Amino acid sequence: MKLYDGGKIITGLVIFVGLMLSPFILGMAKPGEKPDPKTDTPEIQEMEEKDRKCVEPKEFMRTSHMVFIDSWRDQALRDGDRVYENSEGKEIDISLQNTCMKCHSNKKKFCDECHNYMAVKPYCWDCHIVPEEKEGGV
Amino acid sequence: MGLGFSLVAVLTLVLIALGGVGGANLQYLFGVIIPYAAIATFIVGFTLKVLGWAKVPVPFRIPTTSGQMKSFPWINHDKFDNPDTTGQVVGRMLLEVLLFRSLFRNTKTELRDGPRLAYGSDKWLWLAGLAFHWSFLVIVLRHLRFFFADVPVLVQAIEGLDGFLQVGAPLLYITDVVIISAVTYLFIRRVIIPQVRYISLPADYFPLFLILGIAITGVLMRYFIRIHVVGIKELAMGLVTLKPVVPEGIGVLFYIHMFIVSTLRMYFPFSKLMHMGGVFLSPTRNLANNNRRQRHENPWNYDVKVHTYEAYEDEFREKMKESGLPVEKE
């Protein structure tokens, strides 16, 4: 088989295949670990076993918390209504710092655990104050 | 005809994935086996196609020369339209690949009253094409965050720039808006301009619908129908580390997205989409116009047996002298 300008073309192909396979090569070298957000802060552990729940079901929070807090923000700031009634009829104060972060007082081991894995950097903390870091594990 | 066929084909793909995962629970097939098959087909098919092109001889230079060739020093040489050196060719190729320079020259032809033929500049195709391809590139690069444990800084920077409008949560990506608008424009253009519609085949509509399908399912996942994003990264990391896993509760929409992407990858090497590799191998773009200065030998010339004048004279010198013919060497 004779190639014309084979040197250049093969070089191009090697670069192409290398780029396409780079996730595999780097992935094998460094597989990384899946995130493990911890919900064992002192605040959550103080609660009764049956009450250890998020404001909405876990599956919903996992996929939709970003949309959810965005709608909280709108409800609180645009409609001036700072009380949220959840799917179980419980009334909850709308606040990022005083509600979410009161239970999840371990931002680094909880929010950031997932966010670093996904390389998302919510800009909320440019203004909102990050609570003092508390860890569980008692 | 081609339009309807392609639309039905893409919708069928969506239904297959919907039924396969939503109905028959074939997560492993749609999340692992088909993606692996697709990437293999893509890489091997792409390579073979390019090697096939590499086997075609290039007898001499056939660049399109839309500017003044290099000649006397006092005649302006058009470096990028009529490249003379490899450096200039590289410049020409970069402008072509990154900015679609030749498409910028696109014109439209109209028959006006009279009848009179009118030509005009038409930049919309260039603009939409450029917007579409760049968005596509940015989107592909952004997706790399699913495939690296440590997401490269460049990928994070691109993502930050793309979302810098800070609209909503999750943040709106500019490229998502651009790609959908551009592909929609390219589709509408194909349908409403009669000449373009006339030459459009299923091979034109099908990739357009595939890409539109990918963009729409992607946009749905990000902004409208929630899926389990962390689970998706676990699946993607499983694929690239060759330890496939299928986490629970990802959401069927993701599998539909993945299935259309896999189809596009498998279809790629056999379709017009190969212009991705082909642009680099276009003889009318990638050759310097030096035919007049350098001899390019036709590669399929067989060896011609030649008898030069010197050899002829050596052979017949005596006889030539005898009959009084002039010779060069005594």
Q: Kindly state the percentage of residues in helix of chain B.
A: 55-70%
| Lateral arrangement of strands in the main beta sheet of chain B | 1-2
The largest inter-chain interface, given as chain pair and residues per side, is: A-B, 40 and 46 residues
- Per the principal axes of the C-alpha atoms, what is the gross shape of chain A? elongated
If you consult CATH, what is the topology of chain B? Fumarate Reductase Cytochrome B subunit
Radius of gyration of chain B: 28 Å
Give the CATH class of chain B.
Mainly Alpha
In short:
The complex is a heterodimer of chains A (138) and B (330). Chain A has helices at residues 6-29, 42-46, 58-77, 96-103, 111-118; strands spanning 83-85, 91-93.
Tell me what the structure shows.
The complex is a heterodimer of chains A (138) and B (330). Chain A has a two-stranded antiparallel ribbon. Chain A has a domain at 34-126. The mean pLDDT of chain A is 90. Chain A is built from five helices and two strands. In chain A, strand 1 (83-85) and strand 2 form a beta hairpin. The radius of gyration of chain A is 23 Å and the shape is elongated. Chain A has 138 residues and is mainly alpha-helical. Chain B has a single domain, classed as Fumarate Reductase Cytochrome B subunit (Up-down Bundle). Chain B has a two-stranded antiparallel ribbon. By secondary structure, chain B is mainly alpha-helical. Classes of the chains: A mainly alpha (138), B mainly alpha (330). The A-B interface holds A 1-6, 9, 12-13, 16-17, 20-21, 23-24, 26-28, 30-35, 59, 62-64, 66-67, 69-70, 114, 117-123 and B 39, 42-43, 46-47, 50-51, 53-58, 144-145, 147-151, 155-156, 159-160, 166, 168-170, 226-230, 233-234, 237, 240-243, 249, 251, 277, 280-281, 299.
